[in-house]
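Record type: monomer structure entry
Structure origin: computed from sequence
Chain ID: A
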Amino acid sequence: MNATGKLMTVVLLVSLSHQGFADELYSIGLGKPASSWGVVSKSIFDVHGIPKPAIEKVKKIIEAGGAIRGFGFTPDGGWGLTYYEQDRVRLYWTASQVPQSAIDYMKKSSQNGASILDMAFGTNNSWFVLTRKNDTNIWRYKGIPVDLASV
C-alpha cells in the first residue's frame, strides 16, 4: 500500500470511529517505509511492515492471552507497545530503539502510578506519550513542532 492508500485507510478508520460506526480507536502508527502502518481498536489489531522484533513481541503477548492497546514506530526501525496481559487489569509497556528521554519519561510515569496508553515517535528524537492517572489523561512530548503540540 502506498502512502496515499495508507493515509486514506487511517482517515477512514478515524472517521468511522468518530461517527460511531466503528468501535473505539486506540492507536494509529505510521512508519517508514511508507508501507508500514498499524491500527489498534477495541476489536481490530492490524499491522503491516513493522519491525520483526515488534511482531515477535506482539505474537507472544497475544498467544499468552493479552491484548495490544497502543504502539509507535520510529523512522529508524524502533518501536514501542502498550499492552494488557491476560488478566486485563494492568497496562504494561515495552520499547526498543526509541529516544532515551521517552523511556525515562515512561519509566517515571509508571513508577508514579500512571498507565502508558500510547506513544508516537518522529525524527530527531522527537516523541509523544499519552498517560492516564486518576482518570486524567496526561500527554508529554519532546521535539514536536509548536503548531502540532498546541492542537
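Annotation 1: The first strand starts at residue 25 and ends at 30.
Annotation 2: The CA atoms of residues 29 and 91 lie 19 Å apart.
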